[in-house]
Amino acid sequence: QLQLQESGSRLVKPSQTLSLTCAVSGDSISSGSHSWTWIRQPPGKGLEWIGYIYHSGNTYYNPSLNSRVSISVDMSKSHISLNLTSLTAADTAVYFCARGRLYFDHWGQGILVSVSS
Amino acid sequence: DIQMTQSPSSLSASEGDRVTITCRSSQNIGTFLNWYRQKPGKAPELLIYTASILQSGVPSRLSGSGSGTDFTLTINSLQVEDCATYYCQQSHSTPRTFGPGTRVDFK
Questions:
Q1: Is there a contact between A102 and B91 if contact means CB atoms under 8 Å apart?
Q2: Which residue of A has its CA nearest to B98?
Q3: Would you say B13 and B107 are in contact if contact means Cβ atoms under 8 Å apart?
Q4: CA distance A87 to B8
Q5: What's the Cα-to-Cα distance from B74 to each of A10, B7, B12, B48, B63, rounded to whole Å?
Q6: C-alpha angle A105-A22-A12 in degrees, rounded to nearest 5
Q7: A48-85 residue pLDDT tens
Q8: Any idea what DSSP says for residue B80?
Q9: Interval B43-97: pLDDT, tens
Q10: How far is CA A71 from the centre of its chain?
Q11: Which end of chain A is more exposed for a tag (fewer CB within 10 A), N or C?
Q12: CA distance B74 to chain A (A)
């Protein structure tokens, strides 16, 4: 049974960097057969695609975040990481990791990150 | 970016009703269209991918159709567990984009 679990800082100050980790269990990231995606959802709003990391290691980011975002994979730890720099209140959201690049068939439960001083 | 719209934004229906949600893309996306259901406080759940393929474990009372720019999600015989917000999402190109959602609740 594939499980994804997000973790990281839940309260971050403006201008600082958000760092989140998605732990994957029940599937082998190192098999290279899947891509992994981050999606966020501001409170009470819709879903925004952040980007994904392809099984080759290539990454694709939302141009609206392109210069601030990076996604990486640590195969030894079965972790997918998200870093988002220069945070503002507009980055307050629930952040989800998910499996897939076309459609997302497994999701983590999400982690609410608040940007506030 | 490909813009996705959904209609209606919300609807109320009775148990057993047939419900239809429409999704439209700003350009031709073929059948690169997926549907999700999200319940309050939970992660979205994949229902249908590639416009009409039912994800494993999803009840057959749900179905999807369409191609090009116009797509439909149909729920036959609405059940209590179907009350949620439904999102469409295009996978034709990056950035992937979602519709604004359609909230379904009981009358």
A1: yes
A2: A47
A3: yes
A4: 34
A5: 37, 13, 14, 11, 5
A6: 125
A7: 999 999 877 899 999 999 789 999 998 888 999 999 99
A8: G
A9: 999 999 999 999 999 999 999 999 999 999 999 999 999 999 999 999 999 999 9
A10: 7
A11: N
A12: 19
Integer CA distances (angstroms), B83 to B12, B22, B72, in order: 9, 16, 17
CB within 8 Å: B99 and A64? no
CB atoms near residue A43 (< 10 Å): 9
First to last CA, chain B: 36
Q: How far apart are CA B24 and CA B72, in angstroms?
A: 9
Q: Please state, in angstroms and rounded to a whole number, the distance separating the CA atoms of residues A109 and B38.
A: 11
Dihedral sign for Cα A43, B51, A36, B96, please.
Answer: negative
